[in-house]
Amino acid sequence: MAEHFQIQGLEDVQAKLQALGNQKEIKKFVRKASRQAMNIVRDAARNNANLLMILFHLKKFTKISLCHQVKPRTKTVLKCG
């Protein structure tokens, strides 16, 4: 399930970071950039989780409503859900 990415322009970024020379500054910038990237991934995961929950509940409620519509028409007891 691993995906491979090709990052363009990484050499330029590494050269600029090396030009700074200060390890504290480099760590600060990398930490900030990685935090921003992780926030994007976190927000996308939250949106996908919400969508999955909505679809799950929609399917569940549709199944329940279909069972309730069928019960009065037949004399047998249906087990739904």
What does this structure look like?
The model has no long low-confidence stretch (mean pLDDT 77). With 81 residues, the protein is mainly alpha-helical.
Compact description:
The chain has two helices and no strands. The protein is mainly α.
What characteristics describe this protein?
single chain, 2 helices, 81 residues, 0% strand
Sequence-ordered SSE layout with sheet pairings:
Blueprint: H1 10-20, H2 23-70
Distance between the termini: 33 Å
Uncertain stretches: none
Order of helices and strands: HH
Indicate the structural class.
Answer: mainly alpha
**What is the number of beta strands?**
0
Proportion of helical residues = over 70%
**What amount of the residues lies in strands?**
under 5%
Tell me the radius of gyration.
Answer: 26 Å
Main sheet makeup: none
Q: With helices defined by DSSP (H or I, 4 residues minimum), what is the helix count?
A: 2
Shape: elongated
Mean pLDDT: 77
